[in-house]
UniProtKB/TrEMBL annotation:
Protein name, entry field: Cytokinin riboside 5'-monophosphate phosphoribohydrolase
EC number(s) recorded for this UniProt protein: 3.2.2.n1
InterPro entries on file: LOG, LOG_fam
Similarity comment text for this entry: Belongs to the LOG family.
Pfam families given in the database record: Lysine_decarbox
Catalytic activity reported: AMP + H2O = D-ribose 5-phosphate + adenine
Keyword terms: Cytokinin biosynthesis, Hydrolase
Source organism of this protein record: Parabacteroides faecalis
Length: 195
């Protein structure tokens, strides 16, 4: 089992969402700080991203933000993080976040969060990212996507094994526990990447 020192957090930048999502984001940030686990995220200053970062920092934790230069030029970056890494583009951002992390937790989010989550799951399927991936299913937000994943397995677009590429948590506590206890996969997963 891998010693989890840094967890990558994918999540929404929206400010217009139900308060329950902010509650879970803040709780997750605090719990990671209290567990002495560094957060790496997209360095945004609003929405769930800002809430996770602020809660972790307030609890004495560390947050590394990775953000493309054009977003900094727009003033979208959190200026109080422990460390900010400015990269050239979105692709480099995602690669850097994955490289720095020992696990991923995906909170609810929009296009960007969904794209990040699906890409990291794909990388795991291909043996490019072997660490735990946890979906924090606050308020049942991810239920439709999880149903689609089940349908993909049922209709043989994916192997049943591929449904184990991620785990699902209903609470921040469970998400942290899963990230810390799920096994690291082996590159042998590549042998079954194709169906």
């Amino acid at each position: 089992m891998l010693m989890i020192q840094t967890i990558c957090i994918y999540c929404a930048s929206s400010t217009q969402i139900d308060p329950v999502y902010f509650d879970h984001a803040r709780l997750l940030g605090r719990q990671l700080a209290e567990a002495h686990i560094r957060i790496v995220n997209g360095a945004g200053n609003i929405g769930l991203m800002g809430a996770v970062s602020d809660a972790a920092l307030e609890a004495g934790g560390e947050v590394t933000g990775v953000i493309p230069r054009f977003m900094v030029e727009q003033g979208w970056n959190h200026t109080g993080l422990t460390e900010t890494i400015v990269v050239n583009d979105m692709h480099e951002r995602k690669q850097t976040m994955a490289r720095l992390s020992d696990a991923v937790i995906a909170l609810p989010g929009g296009y960007g969060t969904l794209e990040e989550l699906l890409e990291i799951i794909t990388w795991k399927q291909l043996g490019l990212y072997l660490n735990p991936i946890v979906i924090l299913n606050t308020n049942g937000y991810y239920d439709p996507l999880l149903q689609l994943f089940r349908q993909a397995v049922d209709e043989r677009f994916m192997r049943p094994l591929h449904a184990d590429l991620w785990a699902v948590a209903d609470t921040p506590e469970e998400a942290v526990r899963l990230a810390q206890t799920l096994p690291v996969w082996d590159q042998d997963i590549r042998r079954v990447a194709k169906y």
